[in-house]
Amino acid sequence: MSPTVGLYGFTGTVGSAILPALVKVHQEGKIKLVILHRESTDLSKLPKDAKLETRVVDLSDAGKEKNKAAVKDLNVVVSTVGAPGLKSQIYIVEALAGSSALKTFIPSDYGANWTEEELKAPGLAGIGVKEEVVKKAKELGVPLTEVRTGLFGLFFFAYKAVGTDVKGNTVQKFRNSLKNPLRLTTLPYLGYAIATLASDESGYSKIANQVLQVYDVTVPGQEIVDTLTKLNGNAPEITEYSEQQYQEDLKGPGAVVAALKAKWGDGAWGPSGSLIEGWKPKSFEELAREAL
Ligand SMILES: NC(=O)c1ccc[n+]([C@@H]2O[C@H](COP(=O)([O-])OP(=O)(O)OC[C@H]3O[C@@H](n4cnc5c(N)ncnc54)[C@H](OP(=O)(O)O)[C@@H]3O)[C@@H](O)[C@H]2O)c1
């Protein structure tokens, strides 16, 4: 029998990228996909032809019994909840505690490898919530797989999060970012990676209680400059992100992006990882062309 995999948060940015990849392996018979959702979640975005089972969860004190029943046969649970709901994952962890079916829980992380020092920045306090969920899972003996990523390609190209604008032909540099690689994770790769891991029963013991590094593109700043020069026919304007602005940004809502710029500039991404088998990553140039 194929493993049963639960997905919570399918309507979000990450969840909607992971959903089609999980639906694909569900339709191939490699997993049985179960959608976990809030009472209020809009289910109209689920593909009708996939005939997915849906189960309501209630991530509050009132939902404890309902949640336990909803997850009791799940072998893998993937959460992609967004920031306001991160803490409520503790209810998922509590529901999973003692489950004899569970092989691993993948909490909503999909972020960088932060050090304790970095997490002291006031603006990064929200990330501490992810650590609380992990701590609770460890306390309750719930096996979990933490998925660390680079900056999402969507944020780099479409949202210009770290100051590169492919069309506008500008690149922002910070510290040694021209020399050091930026780590990017494209959302299709993240979906592929999660679906591949979730459908490989024989690999569950290798991913439980592990931290995985999931990214498919690394590109030094100079290569970004050279690519933009090639695509636009003239060299991009290079602006400098100042130390002063960095310190200022660390205090507020721009802290995650500021801290990612520092990781890039300092070459401090933490442990590296290898591509999940079968994925053919696009080159930076291909991705940049798509953004033109
Ligand atoms: N590496 C990167 O560049 C990067 C970028 C962005 C995000 N991330 C990380 O990716 C993860 C997912 O983020 P996202 O941007 O995909 O999130 P998002 O788009 O905000 O996703 C929201 C999802 O969470 C669900 N949800 C459940 N409880 C909620 C609550 N109490 N409040 C709000 N939403 C709730 C929503 O369900 P309903 O449909 O029921 O509302 C929805 O499915 C986060 O851990 C985030 O830190 C990483």
What does this molecule look like?
The strands form four sheets. The chain has a five-stranded parallel sheet with strand order 3-2-1-4-5, with helices on both faces. It contains eleven helices and twelve strands. 36% of the residues lie in helices and 17% in strands. Helix 2 crosses helix 3, helix 3 packs parallel to helix 4 (127-139) and helix 8 packs across helix 11. It has 292 residues and is of the alpha/beta class. The model has no long low-confidence stretch (mean pLDDT 97). The protein folds into two domains: 4-150 and 187-214, 3-Layer(aba) Sandwich (Rossmann fold), CATH 3.40.50.720; 152-184 and 216-290, UDP-galactose 4-epimerase, domain 1 (Alpha-Beta Complex), CATH 3.90.25.10. Helix 1 (13-27) links the parallel strand 1 (4-8) and strand 2 (32-37). It binds NADP nicotinamide-adenine-dinucleotide phosphate (NAP). NADP nicotinamide-adenine-dinucleotide phosphate binds at residues 9-15, 37-38, 40-41, 80-82, 84-85, 88, 108-111, 149, 151-152, 155.
